[in-house]
Amino acid sequence: MSIQFSIREKKYKNTKIKWRVAFNKSRHFHTTNSINHFRNIINHYLSVQSHNESVSLVSAIQMDNLLGLLRIKVKRGINLAVRDVSSSDPYIIVKMAKQKLKTRVVKKDINPEWNEDLTLSISDPNIPIHMTVYDYDMFSLDDKMGDADFDIKPFVEAVKMKLDGLPDGTIVTKVPASRTNCLSEESCVMWKDGKVVQDMCLRLRNVECGEVEIQLQWINLPGSKGLMDH
Ligand SMILES: [Ca+2]
């Protein structure tokens, strides 16, 4: 209970962050150490969070295997499908295993600029991330505007490398667009501004048109397992 309370407190102190915390009423929460550990992670995260960010943190049990956080910068949609009379009110839901995050709705725009960060807790980089675009409707069920999967393994492999000292803009890995992925063009994992980033342009499936541009970033957390030991 004390953990829930402390997170709500944070939420109201900084209203730009929406904490979506999956609680697991496990024995782990009954020890002072795990409560303090969880608080440290949240405090650290608050110090590195960006504006306009939704975060999904896993439970204490999963945290034992937590490698770090994946920040998905959802930049924009391009030529998305029309689901109202002449436009759509798009938003995106990102899912990975039991975690689920959502962008805001951009009204009447099939080329929306979200520039919003959705941050997932990663314990297994082999699990693909699924994204679905919806048209918000006030009086009926929201319509689908396509979906896409993406794989974070090449990105996570690059984060594991020691890249400090490389010139800014160095390309670490190139992931080609193929029939088995949703990339609409080659995607580059790059060393940029002292960190690893991957820009992706995803072609939406199960829809007549539309692409979504995202960028991946990695956030290490103190006390988490991290990536370096693997
Ligand atoms: Ca609508």
How would you describe the overall organization of this protein?
The protein has one domain (1-230): Sandwich (Immunoglobulin-like), CATH 2.60.40.150. 18% of the residues lie in helices and 38% in strands. The chain is built from four helices and twelve strands; from the N terminus they run αβαβαββββββαββββ. The protein has helices spanning 2-13, 32-48, 60-63, 153-160, and strands at residues 17-21, 53-57, 68-78, 90-96, 99-102, 113-122, 129-135, 143-150, 170-175, 187-192, 195-203, 211-219. Strands 1-2-6-3-12-11-10-9 form an eight-stranded mixed sheet. A four-stranded antiparallel sheet has the order 5-4-7-8, with no helix packed on it. Strand 11 (195-203) and strand 12 form a beta hairpin. Helix 1 runs parallel beside helix 2. The protein is globular. Bound molecules: calcium ion (CA). The site of calcium ion has 7 residues, from loops.
